[in-house]
Amino acid sequence: MIEDSFGRIHDYLRISLTDNCNMRCFYCMPEEDYDFTPASRLMQTHEIEGLAKLFVENGVNKIRLTGGEPLIRKDADKIILSLSQLPVSLTLTTNGVRLNHFINILKESRVHSLNISLDTLQKEKFQLLSRRDYFQQVYENITLMLQHDFHVKVNMVVMKGLNDDEINDFVEWTKDQPIHVRFIEFMPFSGNKWSSNKVFTLQQILEVVSRKFDILRLQDKKHDTAKKFTVPGHAGTFAIISTMSAPFCEGCNRIRLTADGKIKNCLFSKEETDLLTPYRNGEDVMSLIHKSIKNKAKELGGQFTNVLENVHAEQILNRSMITIGG
Q1: 4 in a structural domain
Q2: pLDDT tens, 255-297?
């Protein structure tokens, strides 16, 4: 069992397979020309499997694979199949571009739930946000996953003045499709030009949705990061991840392992602990894992609070989102 000093049991591991991506979304990547981590410094397939086994032996029962974009890693299929042998719920966060190549692998690995990033339903805006022309491919792959009975969550980062005018378009999408939209408040990371006046909050999102729809609050589970809602009669649901305005740190059970083998005890923690080097040297890493989690701050990495006006991105010490893992 992996427990922090506040009594929170950590049984959910998010593993980043790569910091590389086939898109260039500005809120995730600091620049177009980016120096990705050399392959030799990334965790190799057997190292990911070995470290994952250690976590599972100590109580982890859910693993999510993230990136960058996890499905552009050449051995992604081997990693997915390998981890599917562990007694865990295995899930994946992806931008959706390459999903059509992985349907059989995902089915064989019993990956039933997918989180797919899509910040706009407008092709031109998609290209503006991602700096790539993949909208049709992503949209068609979402449809394809639904046809194959995957549980599909669509992650939409809401940014004021950029895509907040599409909130109800996403909710409308849930009417006839069993899509589970998750609106995510814009969060500060290194190089993403965050400012508080770009954040569209939980309350603002609910105000927009309630102007057009009657909404019903759904029951959240203990460790949920998203506050869930539905429009009566809709096939799907929507939820809001309110990291900035209404954090959910008290129920946090998440551990992050970066693609270069560093453990982060919080998305916003400035401290990291290298697991890969000692693992390669045959040293004990569980003591390092327990120490890292014991040192976890009560909320938001101990770096800021949910008073948006008092959050100054330039004072937050952290990586860019793409190097942490979604």
Answers
A1: no
A2: 999 999 999 998 888 889 999 999 999 999 999 999 999 999 9
Within a 10 A sphere around the Cβ of 146, how many other Cβ atoms? 16
List phi, psi (to 5°) of 237: -135, 175
The answer as to whether 6 is a domain residue is no
Q: pTM for this structure?
A: 0.92
Report the CATH number that the domain containing residue 34 is assigned in CATH. Answer: 3.20.20.70
Structural domain for 200, as ranges: 12-324
> Does any domain span residue 7?
no
Find the mean pLDDT for residues 227-255: 93
User: Which of 264, 274, 276, 275 is closest to 302 using CA atoms?
Assistant: 264
Q: How many domains does the chain have?
A: 1
> Does residue 21 belong to any structural domain of this protein?
yes
- Structure confidence by residue, pLDDT tens digits, 111-144: 999 999 999 999 999 998 888 899 999 999 999 9
